[in-house]
Each structure stands twice: as structure tokens, then as C-alpha cells.
């Protein structure tokens, strides 16, 4: 039991009844009284009203500042400070009447937490964009494909039935639309009659697309990869007509040598042959196709095309010469032997020219040496004199064909002109002339064209 002075009624040394461990009840006024904290100074109680004095300050209890103070007396019965109880006053816990409660302040979030939140939102947005794109892209692609197909089909009537100029305009417009437009056009101008028959093409369209030149190569290479054989064949056929201008398609044509369809293979072989020396990397594979396989018609046709292509490649196919010599010497197919012999002459022209110089005599020997000499004016003069001899200069054909590979364009043009004047005496080297038709020099191309016309116009 502790002696406490009530802050409300001022009664001292009261018999305070314990209500709980932290407060007491004043026996006089019945209000709860909280004991002071241990060690807190004792505040004297408020004065009691004196007789004859109207002091109503305490009629409603002590003022608030008095209620917040602590007063205590020594424990009854003297004693030990350790027996005193400690508690907080109500006013120190609750805010005063009419005062606003302090707002609750949320502790700031960590920067790392904000970063994680941003990353989560960004990832969610990215996933949403990807999912949307995956759903929208096929629709957009289909719309673009349909629009492009409509543009391509606009030119089909002109490409099918127009004149040369109209077809050329249509072909250029189609190529300008991109590789996919070219593939759609190949599908339109090609037809498969079935039963292993050759594919059918719109010839005028093939020529018009070939005339576009290198700009059409990208679309034709994509056509070579088409799942439809007729489209692949049409692409290879156009590249064949394009000649040396199709050199950028060489790798695609080499891959087409292993096509499952016979006609695609043969068009690709012919296209490589028209590249001339540019197709040298394909020589080994062409020699494999030319090797004996079986007696099937399709196999014989493929072999002949391969041998012709090797002849057009010329000296650059020297690595396969032994295999061709073997075929030319003993193959069971007469036509295959003839094609192999022709190819050997185009490839081994240097040896043939050397043998011709060794076997010739008189003025012919002197002229052949001049062809092979370092003096270009003398070589050009010798070629002109051999051309004047006509068919009688047939032994010089190999020397003239060798000069078609010379670095000097003037010597190449003179050799082509002389071969043309030899007529059928130069027939063995027609493939060499055909390869020279794609020469970089325009004078050489003109001379070759005239020579081929002269030889082909001669009666057989």
C-alpha cells in the first residue's frame, strides 16, 4: 500500500485501493490515480480551499497541468523505495482535447524496391507487346502479300500477250516489286504437263525477264529454292538465257545440280555453262554428272548437257580433263563420246595450239608462231592473214581459239573475226566462241557475234 495525494480532490494519505498493477482508486473521490514513475520528482499538491474563501478552482478537479504532474509521499509505514509502483498518466498517453492527432507517416520505400517495381512493369509491357505482335504479324503479312500479289497480277496480261516493249516494261515493273513478286510471276508463267514431260513456259515472259539482267537475279535465286519444280525450272531457264549477267546466281545454280527433277538439273547445267570461266567451281560436280551411270534417257541427256557446259567453261576446267579424255575414248554412247571430245578441245586448247605449231610448215608455221608471240600488232596481222585463207587455215583454228583467252582485247577481237572467216574450219571451237560472246569488251562481243553467224550460216 502506497500513500498518494489525489491530484483531483487533494486528499492526502488516502487509503488507495489497487485497481490493477498500474493504477489506484481514490477512496474519497473514486477517481483512478496513476502512481509516479520511479525517480520522478514529487510535485506538491494544489492548495485546499480555506474557510470563508470562495475558491472554485478545484471544484472540477485540478487543472490539466496539475494532472500531468506527479505527487507522492513516502510509503506508509516508512520504507523502501523499491516497493513503490510506477505508471504513466493518462494525459501523457492521450492527446489533449481538441488537438489533432499527428498523421501517420509511411516510411520511404527503398530505391531497390522502386527499381524492381519498374522492371516488373516493363517486363509485363514487353510480354504484352510480343504477344500482340505475334498475333498481329500474320495478319499484316497476309495483307501485305495480298496487296503485292494484286500489283503483280496487274502486269500479267501485258507480260503474257504484249509486244516486246510492253513485256519489257512489265518485267521491269515486276522485278522492282521485289524477289517475292518474281517468284509469283514464275508461278504464273510456268506449267507442269505431268508424266515427266518438259515444263511449259511463256516464252516471251522468259525472254523479257532475262533481259532485265542482274537486277532480277535475287528473285530468280529465290525461285530456285521454291518447293515447286516448275518454278525452279523457270528460274533456271531465265538464268540460262541471261548468260554471264547471271554470275551472281552461280552458287544457287550449283546447288540446283543436285535437284530431284531432271529438267531443273539440265537448265541449271546449261546456265552454268553460259557463265563460261565464272563457273569453274562447278567443274568437278559437272564431271561427276557426265560420268557413266546407266542407260536411261534422262541420264544420257544430263551427261550431254554436263559435257557441253564443261566445254563452255574452257581451260578453267582443266582439273577434270583426265575424266573427259576417258569418256571421249571409250564411252558406249556415241553422242556422249562426241560431246566429250568437243569439251576436251575447248579445255585443252593450249596443247592443241602447241601441237598445231609443231606440225605446221611454211607460211602457216610462221603465222601460228606470230599468234603465240608477245608482239600484239604482229599477232593481229597474222590473225587477219589466216582469216583471208578461209577454210584452208583450219589447222590454225586451235591457235586462234587460244588467242580468244588472251588478256589483250584487240587480239581477242582479231581472233574471233578470223575464226568466223574460217567457216566450218572453226566448227570445233564454236563453244569457245559462244563463251566469248559474254566478253567484257564490246568490240570482242560484236566480232564474236559476227563470227558465230558466219559459221552457223555455212552449209553443213
Can you describe this structure?
The strands form two sheets. This protein has a three-stranded antiparallel β-sheet with strand order 1-2-3, with no helix packed on it. The chain has a two-stranded antiparallel sheet with strand order 4-5. β1 (17-18) and β2 (24-25) form a beta hairpin. The chain has four domains: 1-48 and 58-93, no CATH class; 144-274, Leucine-rich Repeat Variant; 286-347; 349-460, Alpha Horseshoe (Leucine-rich Repeat Variant), CATH 1.25.10. It has helices at 64-67, 90-93, 111-161, 164-176, 179-189, 203-212, 217-224, 229-242, 250-256, 262-273, 283-290, 297-313, 321-330, 334-347, 349-359, 362-372, 376-389, 397-403, 409-422, 430-436, 442-457, and strands at residues 17-18, 24-25, 32-33, 190-191, 200-201. It is mainly alpha-helical and 460 residues long. α12 (297-313) runs parallel beside α14.
Secondary-structure element pattern, one letter each: EEEHHHHHEEHHHHHHHHHHHHHHHH
Instruction: Write down the CATH class of the largest domain.
Output: Mainly Alpha
Number of domains: 4
Under CATH, the topology of the largest domain can be stated as Leucine-rich Repeat Variant
* Main sheet attributes: strand count, strand direction, barrel closure: 3 strands, antiparallel
Low-pLDDT stretches: 66-89
Amino acid at each position: 500500500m502506497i500513500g498518494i495525494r489525489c491530484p483531483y480532490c487533494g486528499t492526502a494519505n488516502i487509503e488507495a485501493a489497487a485497481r490493477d498493477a498500474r493504477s489506484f482508486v481514490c477512496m474519497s473521490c473514486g477517481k483512478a490515480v496513476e502512481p509516479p514513475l520511479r525517480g520522478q520528482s514529487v510535485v506538491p499538491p494544489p492548495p485546499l480551499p480555506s474557510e470563508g474563501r470562495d475558491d472554485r478552482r478545484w471544484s472540477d478537479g485540478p487543472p490539466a497541468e496539475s494532472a500531468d504532474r506527479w505527487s507522492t509521499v513516502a510509503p506508509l509505514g516508512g520504507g523502501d523505495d523499491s516497493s513503490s509502483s510506477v505508471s504513466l498518466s493518462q494525459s501523457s498517453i492521450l492527446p489533449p482535447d481538441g488537438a489533432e492527432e499527428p498523421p501517420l507517416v509511411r516510411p520511404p520505400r527503398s530505391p531497390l524496391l522502386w527499381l524492381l517495381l519498374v522492371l516488373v512493369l516493363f517486363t509485363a509491357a514487353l510480354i504484352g507487346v510480343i504477344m500482340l505482335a505475334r498475333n498481329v504479324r500474320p495478319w499484316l503479312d497476309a495483307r501485305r502479300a495480298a496487296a503485292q500479289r494484286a500489283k503483280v497480277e496487274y502486269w500479267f496480261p501485258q507480260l503474257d500477250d504484249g509486244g516486246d516493249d510492253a513485256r519489257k516494261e512489265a518485267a521491269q515493273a515486276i522485278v522492282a516489286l521485289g524477289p517475292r513478286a518474281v517468284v509469283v510471276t514464275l508461278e504464273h508463267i510456268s506449267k507442269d504437263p505431268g508424266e515427266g514431260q518438259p515444263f511449259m513456259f511463256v516464252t516471251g515472259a522468259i525472254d523479257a525477264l532475262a533481259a532485265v539482267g542482274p537486277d532480277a537475279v535475287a528473285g530468280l535465286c529465290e525461285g530456285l529454292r521454291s518447293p515447286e519444280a516448275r518454278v525452279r525450272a523457270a528460274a533456271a531457264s531465265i538464268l540460262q538465257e541471261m548468260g554471264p549477267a547471271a554470275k551472281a546466281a552461280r552458287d544457287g545454280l550449283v546447288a540446283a545440280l543436285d535437284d530431284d527433277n531432271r529438267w531443273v538439273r539440265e537448265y541449271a547445267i546449261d546456265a552454268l555453262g553460259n557463265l563460261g570461266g565464272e563457273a569453274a567451281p562447278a567443274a568437278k560436280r559437272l564431271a561427276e554428272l557426265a560420268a557413266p551411270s546407266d542407260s536411261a534417257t534422262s541420264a544420257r541427256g544430263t551427261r550431254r548437257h554436263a559435257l557441253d557446259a564443261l566445254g563452255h567453261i574452257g581451260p578453267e576446267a582443266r582439273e577434270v580433263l583426265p575424266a573427259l579424255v576417258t569418256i571421249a575414248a571409250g564411252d558406249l554412247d556415241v553422242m556422249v563420246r562426241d560431246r566429250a571430245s568437243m569439251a576436251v578441245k575447248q579445255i585443252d586448247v593450249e596443247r592443241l595450239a602447241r601441237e598445231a605449231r609443231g606440225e605446221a610448215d611454211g607460211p602457216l608455221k610462221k603465222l601460228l608462231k606470230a599468234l603465240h608471240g608477245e608482239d600484239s600488232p604482229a599477232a593481229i596481222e597474222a590473225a587477219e592473214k589466216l582469216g583471208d585463207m578461209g577454210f584452208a587455215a583450219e589447222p590454225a583454228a586451235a591457235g586462234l581459239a587460244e588467242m580468244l583467252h588472251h588478256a589483250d582485247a584487240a587480239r581477242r577481237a582479231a581472233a574471233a573475226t578470223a575464226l568466223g572467216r574460217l567457216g566450218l574450219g572453226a566448227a570445233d571451237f564454236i563453244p569457245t566462241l559462244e563463251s566469248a560472246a559474254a566478253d567484257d569488251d564490246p568490240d570482242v562481243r560484236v566480232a564474236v557475234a559476227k563470227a558465230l553467224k558466219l559459221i552457223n550460216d555455212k552449209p553443213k
